[in-house]
Amino acid sequence: MKVVKTAQIAKEPAKSPIFTGPVTMQQIVGPDLSKNFTLRQVNFSPGVRNKFHSHSGEQILIVTEGKGIVATEREEITVGPGDVIYFAAGEKHWHGAAKGSSFSHIYVQSPDSKMTPLEE
């Protein structure tokens, strides 16, 4: 058994053109602990989101802090702590902080899943 306290995991800046502003990530479980899934916390600054993208595998988000928005081409939903979001493989979507609020979520996905950017 291993207990991980996210408050004790360093927040590393996420440098990717998929984000519209400052974001940090915390590696919770990676290939060193599991060959079956990746588990990271993503921390969005107020109003920051990622751009439309898809994943080759399924993705689950677990909201841990703040107020966020999850969206597909058809809908946008406001989410908060405790909400769990499921995106099917290949589903075009984005997620991020609501205006005026920071936002954090943990994501769970296969380590083999590939992300495809779909927005400039």
- Count of DSSP H/I helices: 0
Query: Largest sheet, order of strands side by side?
Result: 1-2-3-10-5-8
Q: What's the number of domains?
A: 1
The SS-based structural class is mainly beta
**CATH domain class:** Mainly Beta
Low-confidence stretches: none
The CATH homologous superfamily is named Jelly Rolls
Helix content: under 10%
What's the count of strands? 11
Shape: globular
CATH architecture: Sandwich
The profile of the biggest β sheet is:
6 strands, antiparallel
Order of helices and strands: EEEEEEEEEEE
The N- to C-terminal Cα distance equals 42 Å
How much is the average pLDDT?
Answer: 95
How large a portion of the residues is in β-strands, by DSSP E? over 45%
Q: Would you give the CATH topology?
A: Jelly Rolls
List keywords for this structure.
120 residues, mainly beta, Jelly Rolls, six-stranded antiparallel β-sheet, three-stranded antiparallel β-sheet, 11 strands, globular
If you had to describe this structure to a student in words, what would you say it looks like?
- By secondary structure, this protein is mostly beta strands.
- The protein has a single domain, classed as Jelly Rolls.
- Helices cover 0% and strands 46% of the residues.
- It has strands at residues 12-13, 23-29, 38-44, 53-55, 59-66, 68-72, 76-79, 84-87, 93-97, 103-109, 115-117.
- A 6-stranded antiparallel sheet has the order 1-2-3-10-5-8, with no helix packed on it. A 3-stranded antiparallel sheet has the order 7-6-9, with no helix packed on it.
- A hairpin with a 3-residue loop joins β6 (68-72) and β7 (76-79).
- It is globular.
- The chain starts with 11 loop residues before the first strand and ends with a strand.
